[in-house]
Design goal:
Elements (H helix, E strand, L loop, with lengths): L1 H6 L4 H8 L3 H9 L6 H10 L14
Helix pairs in contact: 2-3
Length: about 60
């Protein structure tokens, strides 16, 4: 997600404000400690101009 923030010229703080949540929560999302609800992921994807799936980094095992 850091790349999506850079591409959209948004900070974690500005994304948090637009989502109506805390910057700490967005930080936890980015670090993988928390996960978006479906509705918040939808809103984030609209803000970041991406697909919901793009919000998650998939690891090939």
């Amino acid at each position: 997600m850091p790349e999506l923030l850079r591409r959209n010229k948004l900070s974690q703080s500005s994304l948090a404000k637009r989502l109506g949540t805390s910057e700490a929560f967005v930080s936890q999302i980015i670090s993988g400690k928390k996960h978006f609800s479906y509705l918040m992921a939808l809103k984030a994807s609209l803000i970041l101009n991406c697909q919901m799936e793009d919000l998650y980094e998939w690891v090939d095992e």
